[in-house]
Amino acid sequence: MSLTPTEEDYGLNNTNANNNAFVANNTPNNNTIRTVNNSNSNNNGHPTRISKCWSKTKSEARLLRVLLIVLILANLPKNIGNYALYPFTIFSTWIHESCHGIAALLVGGKVQWLKIYANTSGLTMTIINPTKFNGSFVSSAGYCGTAITGGILLLFRKIPWASRCLMVLLGTIMIVSVIVYVRNVFGMVSVSILSGIFFLGSYFLNNFWIMEVLAFVAAATCLNSIMYISYLFGQSQGSVGGELRSTDAYAMQLYTGVSRYFWATLWMLLSLFMVTVGIFCGFQGTRNSGGEEKNTDTDTDRDDTISDKDDGAKTNGNTSIISTSTDTAPFTTTVEIV
What we know:
alpha+beta, four-stranded antiparallel sheet, three-stranded antiparallel sheet, 10 helices, 49% helix, disordered C terminus
């Protein structure tokens, strides 16, 4: 039995026909597909960019709440929120200090050692050729590298197998860094424990929770420079390993002559940019945690397509020594010429 279009299907009896157009098609399988164009769609029936962005923002409500909670906790007075964020802050410190070391290696230098302290501060001793470019590159690598790393993790947070592989990869790199570079007891123990948690999580957590954990880790890492706004703009030195050392922003001021407030603002904007990229450009998985097929985002707004079957309707939608350091939020750099 085939279906015959009626006047209602063409919107002839609908007072809102200008906003809603219904098109009925006869199919061999007795299925009728109707496309609804709402006020957020253009004349061709495709959703506008604004409606796409709004739909995407609503779909990321959980992640946005996580980002807001992380920012609020990190900036509470008397370090109250730091207790809840402590493991994530230690991880961010490790990423930050590792990025200093990687930057030193990229300019032909060497990494002497890396230390992470119980107050979440960190220190990386590197040997590089004493030029302004090298010093600036190594000093800025901490915040820049952490923001970029967090953004990359956000991109893959919705793909179960990728999230699992990233957890294993991070755990492996952490163990290697402990063996090769970390040279204080707390740093070795804390990084090893985090590495073990990553390995265990990648093995025991189901797809849903592995993606949730990676999203939270990525958010805390990406927002590293924003999490400690008061420190970046309020101090030029901080205590690292019991010694006062210049912050990375102040070190950049010494190297470039540009105010540390400029560099602090630039790093914050980079963090926000990477969060935005991670939210709106993130890759989509093909299956959900239960193993069922999962819809992916395309240029067509699937929330605006309704398929009517025989059994009902269904809606689809988804050579100088540079010492770089950190202090609770502070990441600092000092230089000694040898």
